[in-house]
Amino acid sequence: MEILRPQLIRIDGRIYRKNLIQEKTYQHEEDDEDFYQGFMECSEEPCDTYGVVQTQQGFRCTVKAPSLLYKHIVGKRGDTRKKLEVETKTSISIPKPGQDGEIVITGQHRSGVISARTRIDVLLLTFRRKQPSTHFLSFFLNEVEVQERFLKFQEEVLEKCSMDDGVDSTIFQNPKKLHLTIGMLVLLSEQEIQQTCEMLQQCKEDFIDGISGGKPLEVEMSGIEYMNDDPGMVDVLYAKVHMKDGSNRLQELVDRVLERFQASGLIVKDWNSVKLHATVMNTLFRKDPNAEGRYNLYTADGKYIFKERESFDGRNILKQFENFYFGTLKLNSLHISQRFTVDSFGNYASCGHVDFS
């Protein structure tokens, strides 16, 4: 990354730059205190949005955060909190592990409290980015017609292309789990799930109803494409999804939802647009039928896992099934789906949704 173009972090509508000169690469939880040493350099002028209040003892500010992230503010042996307190001349109270509550910052000077709050916010965001995704925004694509056509696709591919390297029945998607992903979410508490539900409802009121006209969006799944650069070594093959009337309404809708959730910090990946696709073949399924594509990179406790992939030769499949028709669907609801779960229909369990009609 260029020194003159440092990485930027957005928090509550404000933008901070990371200090690239002193920053150290985060490797393990034990290195939290090393990471903190010069982890960022930012503007610390007064910020009214922090809600700093004056008390008889000085100034006070609270920070809401999932209890799972408290340990990153405390640091190994409490070193991170101690450094924050010394450098900002504040006192920072953090709930005990496993207990819900608020981080409370107190100090004699308002600027010090604001500085501590700013640094805590950046730490929270940084370590949130390292958590495995827990949920995702999605459309279900598992209508009966599409499932039947998908099984037909699988049958014909195995009949005509099973002799191609790496092609076998284990790498096909479960037809009950066909879906279109808008973005991955890291929701670490029931409060954050509720916040996501409320934001999705606000999206419906602000623009979803206007784009959809209060009616389901009629789309087609038709044609296949691959993710990587070499059709002879494919890891993910997907079906393309587009509006049946040829309009751009679905793309507009999902891009605006993505933008809203990125601005809130609930989706932390910096993508400008959603790729409309439904995974139909994935080499991760070969060893783990419950794997979840390129997002399945971390265990539940946040440890990175390496999944060896055996790519497949997709050239014949792409040639013979380039325009395969999977069917027409009516997208009438947008869901907050939970990873590693299954509902009574065999799809991902939904923690909340909004309907278009």
From TrEMBL:
GO biological process terms, alphabetically, are: DNA alkylation repair; regulation of DNA-templated transcription
Pfam families the record matches: AKAP7_NLS, KH_1
Q: Which UniProt keywords apply?
A: DNA damage, DNA repair, Nucleus, RNA-binding, Transcription, Transcription regulation
Q: Domain of life here?
A: Eukaryota
Is DNA damage among this UniProt entry's keywords? yes
Task: Name any GO cellular component annotation.
Answer: nuclear speck
Q: List localization entries.
A: Nucleus speckle
Extract the InterPro entries matched here. Answer: AKAP7-like_phosphoesterase, ASCC1, Cyclic_Pdiesterase, KH-I_ASCC1, KH_dom, KH_dom_type_1, KH_dom_type_1_sf
SMART domains tied to this protein = KH
Residue limits of the K Homology domain? 57-125
**Where primarily located?**
nucleus
What Gene Ontology molecular function terms does this protein carry?
RNA binding
Q: Which CDD domains match?
A: KH-I_ASCC1
Checking Gene3D superfamilies in the record gives:
Cyclic phosphodiesterase, K Homology domain, type 1
Describe its partners and assembly state.
Identified in the ASCC complex that contains ASCC1, ASCC2 and ASCC3. Interacts directly with ASCC3. The ASCC complex interacts with ALKBH3. Part of the ASC-1 complex, that contains TRIP4, ASCC1, ASCC2 and ASCC3. Interacts with CSRP1. Interacts with ZCCHC4.
Q: What does this protein do?
A: Plays a role in DNA damage repair as component of the ASCC complex. Part of the ASC-1 complex that enhances NF-kappa-B, SRF and AP1 transactivation. In cells responding to gastrin-activated paracrine signals, it is involved in the induction of SERPINB2 expression by gastrin. May also play a role in the development of neuromuscular junction.
Annotated PANTHER family: ACTIVATING SIGNAL COINTEGRATOR 1 COMPLEX SUBUNIT 1
What name has this protein been given in UniProt?
Answer: Activating signal cointegrator 1 complex subunit 1
